[in-house]
Amino acid sequence: MQKEVIQVAGMTCGHCKQAVEGAASSVKGVSRAEVDLKAGNVTVEMEEGTNITEIKEEIEDQGYDIN
User: What total number of domains does the chain contain?
Assistant: First the structure.
């Protein structure tokens, strides 16, 4: 299992948290995604070889910017 912290701009509320966690979790190989609104990031736990770019694209598709 590997962890990746992704900086996400524009998250301000519980809905944002839910949207970003859902988007990241939808990618094959992701076992857990947890947003920290104060830090402005999402920590993703995933299997080795999971496509980080795909995770970032799913988050951007929800209307958020990756820093």
Answer: 1
List of residues 6+ apart from 41 with CB closer than 8 A: 5, 6, 7, 8, 35
Extract the tokens encoding 14. 């519980």
Q: Residue 24 is encoded by which pair of tokens?
A: 């990241």
d(CA 2, CA 15): 26
Rounded to the nearest 5 degrees, what angle is found at the Cα of 66, between the Cα atoms of 64 and 67? Answer: 130
Query: Is 0.85 surpassed by the pTM of this model?
Result: yes
Domain, as residue range, for 47: 2-66
For the chain (67 residues), the mean pLDDT of every run of 10, in chain order, is 96 97 98 97 97 97 95
